[in-house]
Amino acid sequence: MKLHAALTASVFTLAVLMAAPALATVYTFTDASGVTHFTNVPSDPRYAGMARVPYRLSAYKSVKTSSGYLTASDRYAPLVQKAAREHSLDQALLQAMIAAESGFDPRAVSPKGAVGLMQLMPETARRYGVRDRYDPAENIQGGAKYLRDLMRKFNNDLSLTLAAYNAGEDAVIQHGNRIPPYRETLQYVPRVLTLYRQYQRNVR
Fold this sequence. Notes:
Blueprint: H1 5-19, E1 27-30, E2 36-39, E3 48-49, H2 67-72, H3 77-86, H4 91-102, H5 122-127, H6 136-153, H7 158-167, H8 169-174, H9 183-202
Antiparallel strand pairs: 1-2, 1-3
């Protein structure tokens, strides 16, 4: 899967906006081709205002210092390749998500109870037959299955799929099939997309 040029450009715009310590209003719309656009200068009437939120990236490792992720991913490359092949996903996308979700730490646990490389919640693990969320192979398989289902549900709109993985599919639907204006989700989506581009350059 390749990111649309317009989406790629808009992702960097959003990332820059969110790096600023001040509050900012971000506008977004998804066009007829399924491309989600972001801007702080809404020159098109299709943009809809999103809520003001304090953008702080302190809880996240800077994408600029993510080179360590590229090395860490080698350890799980065979498992990622297998899951990507079996579920028709881009290997680079799975790597980007694991980097963003857990930093390739299979023992990672979030404050909300998500566990493992792809940070599976208990209900998601049960849904996809994952018995041991700490097991890298099971965790990656469960996360890949969930990601594939989300992509089908949101018509392969990658931004919405990632937002649903982070905030929940119901949250995306409740916000009119748009990225929910949650601080964590607004940070997560461009972060994964940026990592995705980095992994695409490194996957052979």
